[in-house]
Structure to design on (204 residues):
């Protein structure tokens, strides 16, 4: 059947950065955003008000970063494998039909909207895995950050502040990754149901 959209729209994103810029039209879930902000607030209160032992927080950050890197890389492998199987089994006719339909909330083609929701998860997992890796590589004892901070006039203040900020960001990122995983699972379910609904109408 003839399609009305320009076929170049299917391949106008040339990198993950292009996908990220286009996917910013998709608004985050308000409940998830609120939960992430609450966790960030609680961790911030603990780091800057309740907990005064900076070495303990530094140890937590290093352990969390190592665990976070392992979790993100392992989970990302499963997500990509599942998405690959899912995309391979999807019917091209339906996906091209989805390209002609526009998502009302974002103005994106429905096909791009559905795939961008998956890409957002992959990009977030890759970005946070890189964040954890930088902490592991640069934040070890006598590593780059330790030696760099030693050059500053008020080393203890800057070091404590950086550790507390890292404590908040790394801890919050765990909740964010889990919420993304929840969204990924739901999106798989929703799109499979849409596939079945399309089949139902195509055969009736």
């Amino acid at each position: 059947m003839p399609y009305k959209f320009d076929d170049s729209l299917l391949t106008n994103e040339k990198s993950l950065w292009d996908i990220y810029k286009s996917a910013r039209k998709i608004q985050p879930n308000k409940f998830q955003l609120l939960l992430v902000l609450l966790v960030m607030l609680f961790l911030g209160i603990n780091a800057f008000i309740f907990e005064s032992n900076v070495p303990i927080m530094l140890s937590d950050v290093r352990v969390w970063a190592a665990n976070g890197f392992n979790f993100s890389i392992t989970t990302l492998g499963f997500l990509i494998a599942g998405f690959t199987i899912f995309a391979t089994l999807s019917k091209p006719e339906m996906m091209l039909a989805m390209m002609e339909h526009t998502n009302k909330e974002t103005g994106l083609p429905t096909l791009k909207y559905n795939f961008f929701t998956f890409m957002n998860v992959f990009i977030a997992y890759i970005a946070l895995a890189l964040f954890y890796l930088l902490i592991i590589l640069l934040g070890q004892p006598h590593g780059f950050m330790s030696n760099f901070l030693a050059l500053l006039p008020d080393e203890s203040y800057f070091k404590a502040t950086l550790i507390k900020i890292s404590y908040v960001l790394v801890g919050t990122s765990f909740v964010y990754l889990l919420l993304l995983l929840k969204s990924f699972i739901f999106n798989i379910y929703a799109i499979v149901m849409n596939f079945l609904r399309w089949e139902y109408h195509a055969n009736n």
Remarks:
- The helical segments are 16-23, 30-50, 54-89, 92-100, 110-138, 144-149, 155-202.
- The chain has a mean pLDDT of 88.
- The radius of gyration is 21 Å.
- Residues 29-202 form one domain.
